Input
Amino acid sequence: MYDISKNTYKIAKLNNLDIYPSTKKNKKIDIYRDGKYLGSIGDSRYKDFYMYLKEDRALAYERRRLYHLRHKGNTFKERAARLLLW
Output
C-alpha cells in the first residue's frame, strides 16, 4: 500500500480535496470532493516526487522537471497527479 506524504495531504486540503490510499490495484491515491469520488491517480509501481525526495534531493527535482515535460495534458487526473504527486 502506498504511504501518502504529509505534503500531499496539505496540498489536497488547500484544494478542498479528500484523499485516501487507493482501493484499486496499482493506484496510489483515491480523490474525493464533498464525498463524491473523482478518480484514482498514480501508479503504485512507479516512484513520485516525494519518494525520490527521500533518496536524493537533486534527483527528485530532475525527475520532477522531466515528468512535467512528458505530461502536459489538461484532464482532471493529469492535473491532480501533477498537483499531488509532482
Observations:
- Helices lie at 6-14, 49-55, 57-70, 76-85.
- The two ends are 19 Å apart (CA to CA).
- The mean pLDDT is 94.
- The longest strand covers residues 36-43.
